[in-house]
Write a structure and sequence with these properties.
Layout (H helix, E strand, L loop, with lengths): L4 H30 L2 H7 L1 H28 L7 H5 L8 H22 L6 H8 L2 H15 L6 H26 L3
Helix pairs in contact: 1-3, 1-7, 1-8, 2-3, 3-5, 5-7
């Protein structure tokens, strides 16, 4: 593997992509449960906040590693512009385009997280909630562009994370819609 740089980049791209997906899933799920009564009662708020903050710090660089590995992989033949401008890639246009949107949102989330003190609370919260569509775009990118879905553990893991977030998201929305 080390003798073939493209194979190494491909493996690093896959591992970092799956790891980014896992960390983003945990980050969004823990973020959803921080405000829920059942989540806070189950673990307490402090561990959830710590998990949310840790996985947020983790998924952002993993996403950058994923993109960098694919840019270095000559077989993928992606350019920097393909990574940041959606639907520009010469193949897998929709899947890679959705990945580009997820990447752009990740960069925006990272910048605004570091610059939070310069934003109004409402502006920060609006931008922070873009993590939800970032997850959806990353999920769709994984399904449409991922080469590992023939492996049952990968498919089960990916769909399982999406299902867990769908249930947690629905529970969160239902609590917001209940009259006080």
């Amino acid at each position: 593997m080390l003798q073939d740089p493209d194979l190494l980049y491909w493996v690093v791209g896959r591992v970092s992509g799956l790891s980014c997906y896992a960390a983003l899933s945990i980050s969004v799920l823990s973020g959803l449960t921080i405000r829920s009564r059942s989540g806070a009662a189950w673990t307490g708020r402090k561990p959830l906040v710590a998990l949310h903050e840790y996985t947020t710090v983790l998924w952002m660089p993993l996403g950058l590693i994923h993109v960098q590995a694919l840019l270095l992989d000559h077989i993928s033949a992606l350019s920097v512009w393909d990574a940041v401008i959606p639907f520009r890639a010469g193949y897998g246009t929709v899947g890679i385009g959705l990945g580009s949107i997820a990447f752009d949102l990740i960069v925006l989330l990272a910048i605004t997280t570091w610059a939070r003190r310069f934003l109004s609370p409402a502006a920060w919260l609006f931008i922070h909630r873009l993590a939800y569509p970032a997850f959806v775009f990353q999920f769709l990118h994984s399904v449409l562009s991922g080469t590992d879905f023939s492996q049952p553990p990968i498919a089960i893991f990916t769909w399982g994370c999406a299902a867990a977030l769908a249930v947690a998201g629905a529970a969160r929305v239902s609590t917001l819609l209940k009259p006080a």
